[in-house]
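User: Some background: our group keeps a shared notebook of sequences we're curious about, and every so often someone picks one and asks for a predicted structure to add to the entry. Today it's my turn. The entry only has the sequence so far, pasted here. Could you supply the structure so I can complete it?
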Amino acid sequence: MHKSIDLPSPPAFAGLAAGRPLALFLDFDGTLVEIADTPDGIHVPDGVPAQLAALHRALGGRIAIVSGRAIADIQSHLGPPHLLMVGSHGAEIGEAAKGTKPLSDASRAELAALTAAWPRLLVETKPHGMAVHYRQEPEAAPAVFTVMDDMAAREGLAARRGKMVVELGPKSANKGAAVTRLMAAAPFAGALPVFIGDDTTDEDGFAAVAAAGGYGILVGAPRPTAAHYRLADPEAVHRWLTL
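Assistant: Of course. Here's the predicted structure to add to the notebook entry:
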């Protein structure tokens, strides 16, 4: 990661590629939309689906949403898909997964005890795992970390900590691996990759585009990061993406 956390704003979107085709990878929560108290509480600003469709056309299809949300969840907020979507931290690429991975009886019992002790926790089922949101129960964080780490070890999954959430998912899936896979094939191959994200789970994406000669753009407050540039908030992201 960069030593300095005071990153500059990125160059103008239109000129960033400097004659080289551009590939754009966008996180969703905290990047395209403001984070809400609950996953279903987000608001997609007017014009965002149209803006994404315009970017898809301008970039020759070299754009993807890369999110921790399931693909079906993203589509429920953005409407009919106009571009490639990567969901569940890379466990889903292009197609929504069907069904869910069941937890063992021991893990279900441990999770039930956790939510009984902290009733304002929000448990979200995902195609390849699950997540526990503790935004409404911030004091529960140590207990959530312990239980989710135990469950990850028991189920053979990875526990990923984000902004007021811990998610369980496949060990092999992360946003960086998904970006690397996409960059190896058309239409992304040979393009200059740019990854925009806000959370610690986006660091794998920043590292992947940097390894391919591209740039990461952090959204939000300064912090140690592998990104090269920073934008203040989702509104600044939308302004920067204006064609």
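Suggested note for the entry: DSSP finds eight helices and eleven strands in the chain. The CA atoms of residues 18 and 192 lie 10 Å apart.
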